[in-house]
Amino acid sequence: MTADPAALLASSRWITESALAGASEAALVEGLCGRLQDLGLGLARVLVGIDTLHPVIGGRGFIWRRGVGVEPREFGRADPEMDTKWQQSPHYYLMQNGGRSLHRRIQAGDNKPREFSVLDDLANVGITDYVAFLVRFGDSASIGEMDCVYSSWTTERPGGFNDVDIAALDSLVPELAAAIKNLTVSRIAETLVETYLGRDAGRRVLKGAIARGIADKIRAVLWFSDLKGFTRLVDTLPPKSIMPLLNDYADVLVSAIHQQGGQVLKFIGDGVLAIFEKGDTVEDCRRALAATEDAFRRAAALNARRTAESLPTTGFYLSLHVGDVFYGNIGSADRLDFTVIGPAVNEVTRINGMCRSLDQDLVLSSAFAEAAGPARSRLVGLGRYALRGVARPQELFTLDRGG
Description:
The protein is an alpha+beta fold. It contains twelve helices and 14 strands. It has helices spanning 5-20, 25-38, 80-87, 90-97, 117-124, 163-197, 199-206, 230-236, 239-259, 281-308, 343-358, 366-371; strands at residues 43-51, 57-65, 69-76, 101-105, 129-136, 148-155, 215-227, 263-268, 271-276, 316-332, 335-341, 362-364, 379-385, 394-399. A hairpin with a 2-residue loop joins β10 (316-332) and β11. α6 (163-197) packs across α7 (199-206). The chain is elongated, with a radius of gyration of 28 Å.
């Protein structure tokens, strides 16, 4: 490889400018490997990995192979196989011993046991040299378990890497690690706001909708559901079984809502508040009903599974309403919530309360029936009722789910 400082400086600048321009982690790894190949490094296989902060994903890796390109990979939080591989890896060794890099020549035909099993695997495919780097973050720069970027660089070239190659990697790997970390932090921010605020609300917040009191008036289909007999379940079930039960049924409801483009805004105990709002109320009603039927199907499948596992089961009550609401930031100067407010929100919860007295698991408002368009023919009247806190009585409906 060339020892030209200008070439290394150009590669370093390319990493920084690409990251600032929003290039993906995979594009950064592929681009840098391509540049190093052009400079004569002779790479065969490269791995770059970083942990993340995500409800399900434990971390991401990017594997580059000569002639193939980059393959992104994700690994879960609870992955015993990955944990075992990590603890047997050179990177874990560096982490435990405070090292920054590790360099091992791989001699062909050497039958002696190697200190790391990955070196045996690499020897079997013709790799002649291996370098591992571990770039640590300071305590204040770590996020959860995301405390380093680890990478490995290999070649099949006879004689392996030379001193100039190693020095080039030693210079550029920290630059790459900083760029990967910054991209991962951006991804974490997006994940967190969408996970805790909802997809649409999260995107709005990231685009700058964070001023207190700023809200849009929208017309939306409102969804409110809660679990049947949840208080009784809490009183009678072992405490450790409550959260898994809640998560199972929340997954049913949220998956059905998201499948139809709805936005889950809030969990209120065992309740779920969501909206459907794409600018076409008839279409929003259709999507809300499709999500409703999907949720009931998913709940039936879940109950069958939990029954087979001798776990407690339940169902849910659901109400749908249409109304004007204010959608935006509400709260104090140092604690905001991105949600909907207005009389329609109160009404949908009152309608949900009628499910029990009407012995229906689904109750729809008169406003929903009026806005439902062709779906109106599938609605069945339940009678006219006064709702607590609502000035005028209204007719309520349910959905004919026969056939």
